[in-house]
Amino acid sequence: MRFHFALTLWTSVCQAVQHYPAAWGHYDLCKFQIYTEEGLTWDYMACQPEAADMTQYLKVTLDPPNITCGDPPETYCALENPYMCNNECDANTEELAHPPKLMFDIEGRNPTTFWQSTSWQKYPKALLVNITLSWNKTIELTDDIVLTFESGRPEQMVLEKSLDYGRTWQPYQFYATDCLDAFTMEPKTVQDLTQHTLLDIICTEDYSRGYVWKYDKTVRFEIKDRFALFAGPRLHNMASLYGQLDTTKNLRDFFTITDLRIRLLRPATGATMVDEDKLTRYFYAISDIKVHGRCKCNLHANSCVFDKEKLGCECEHNTTGPDCGRCKKSYQGRAWSSGSYLPIPKGTANICIPNNIGPVNCECFGHSNRCSYIELLNTVICVSCKHNTRGQHCQLCKLGYYRNTSAELDDENVCIARVCDNELLRCQNGGVCVNNVRCSCPSDYSGLLCEKSRCEAELGGCQGPDSGAALPPPPLRLLLLLLGSALLGGASAL
Ligand SMILES: [Ca+2]
After folding, report:
1. Hey, where are the domains in the chain?
2. 378, 358 contact by CB (below 8 A)
3. Which segment of 166-170, 208-212, 250-254 scores lowest on mean pLDDT?
4. How far apart are the C-alpha atoms of 24 and 28, rounded to whole Å?
5. How far apart are CA 188 and CA 200, in angstroms?
6. What is the pLDDT of residue 111?
7. Which residues, by Cβ under 5 Å, contact ligand 1, an ion?
8. What is the CA(113)–ligand 1 centre distance, in A?
9. Distance in angstroms (rounded) separating the CA atoms of residues 197 and 148
10. What is the homologous superfamily of the domain 52-295 according to CATH?
């Protein structure tokens, strides 16, 4: 079953401006057709599947396997009233059975449907139940995990996660009526966390205390409060969160799971003493589990399919694998890389490129930092060349602009508008305009419009007729000086 609409191909018909759908900030599009001077081509973007109710795609396992009530049939008493014992459980009667699947059906109608465990008949041996939810696929959590208990919230519980399909487990959060007593941990709440301690594992008493369970039945793992540490209280600045997720692997991994495990360690008792005569008062019952998230596709897919009981990304950008975690066989021209949320809002696709294209850099002489792979031509071209350039590597000048021969290819002024004409932009000092592209200057002048005298450019000035030539060469000057001195001496003697 497909839970995200298929990629919509949207063709731009406007040549001058690239149009993108309004929702581009959500990374919901993997590629987009644009019009370049090379024709219609793809522009690639980072993309991810829409978040969804992930409980539709999981496998649930209970340990011990026979912990569900009703085999043989049992009668339970109410926790708040030990004399009200009309709760029947019979695994073989549909109306009285409480199988695990009732934790994931649609709630909101009466009566509430729930899974229920056997009672604490083996007291004082602990009533331990592990509920494992497996997706067989990495998923990224996008909202709070919420468990609804119909039996009173457990007095001790641990929520755990796995990132390797259940091989290893890490705690997500501890829950207890008394954190110090149960786990030797100081009680904390999610509000105590900061950006720096966001990854700390805490024990909270917020969801275990009190006996008013009829009105407060939920146990929560607060994903959104943690997001809010970066994105603000109403998650209005998701850009900040995406930026952090992009650059901090630990943060990204924190919200990523393949499995969840709910370890129920002690049921609600509603008192400090356990009523050993009425152990049928104590059990676990869960009516609903909410897990909201999206398939992790490394920003290379915008849809995820559930086929043959298995989730898989519909990979784009020439990637493959359940998480789009590698390049297709014939697209290994450079190392695989995850897409990036940056720069916001479109991100970077980091597509895989063909093997036979050789080492391809997005080489655009500094006039663009974006490239696009054209499958038809099996080549990579620069997209959106700036500074009046164009071409596969932005190495040519746009129509109406000319190559400035005095500038290097990576110079911002490499392409300049018409240099000279015979009306407004006349070549000076006798220069002649050649094809409007350059002035052909007389030998004494240089510059774009022959406006510079070569004398000015040379150090020490020019040897012109009005300057140095006024003085005779040094030996003749010395002779004249001596003659003058002799004449002046003679005159004074007269
Ligand atoms: Ca239910």
Report:
1. 52-295
2. no
3. 208-212
4. 7
5. 11
6. 82
7. 102, 105, 107, 113, 287
8. 4
9. 28
10. Galactose-binding domain-like (2.60.120.260)
3-state secondary structure the chain: CECCCCCCCCECCCCCCCCCCHHHHHCCCCEEEEEECCEEEEEECCECCCCEEHHHHCEEEEECCCCECCCCCEEECCCCCCCCCCEEECCCCHHHCCCHHHHCCCCCCCCCCCEEECCCCCCCCCCCEEEEEEEEEEEEECCCEEEEECCCCCCEEEEEEECCCCCCCEEEEEEECCHHHHHCCCECCHHHCCCCCCCCCCEECCCCCCCCCCCCCEEEECHHHHHHHHHCCCCCCHHHHHHHHHHCHHHHHHCEEEEEEEEEEECCCCCCCCCHHHHHHCCCEEEEEECEEEECCCCECCCEEEECCEEEECCCCCEECCCCCEECCCCCCCCCCCCECCCCCCCECCCCCCHHHCCCCCCCCCCCCCEEEECCCCEEEECCCCCCEECCCCCEECCCCEECCCCCCCCCCCEECCCCCCCCCCCCCCCEEECCCEEECCCCEECCCCCEEHHHHCCCCCCCCCCHHHCCCHHHHHHHHHHHHHHHHHHHHC
State how far the Cα of 105 lies from the Cα of 85, in Å rounded to an integer.
26
Distance (Å, whole) CA 114 – CA 100: 8
**From ligand 1's centre to the CA of 94, what distance in Å?**
14
What tens digit of pLDDT does each residue of 18-71 get?
333 333 347 999 998 887 766 777 889 999 999 999 999 999 999 999 999 999
Ligand 1 centroid distance, CA of 117 (Å): 14
The yes-or-no verdict on residue 208 having pLDDT over 50 is: yes
Q: Which residue has the tokens 């900061």?
A: 194
Per the DSSP assignment, residues forming a β-bridge with 52 are 293
**Exposure pattern of 49-81 as b/e (b: 16+ CB <10 Å)?**
bbbbebbebbebebeeeebbbbeeebebbebee
Q: Residue 112 C-alpha to ligand 1 middle, in angstroms? A: 6
Tell me how far the alpha carbon of residue 56 lies from the centroid of ligand 1, in angstroms: 13
pLDDT in tens, 341-354: 988 888 899 999 88
How confident is the model over 94-148, as pLDDT tens digits?
Answer: 999 999 999 999 887 678 999 999 999 999 999 999 999 999 999 999 999 999 9
Distance 100 CA to ligand 1 centre (A): 9
- Whether the CB-CB separation of 171 and 291 falls below 8 Å is answered with no
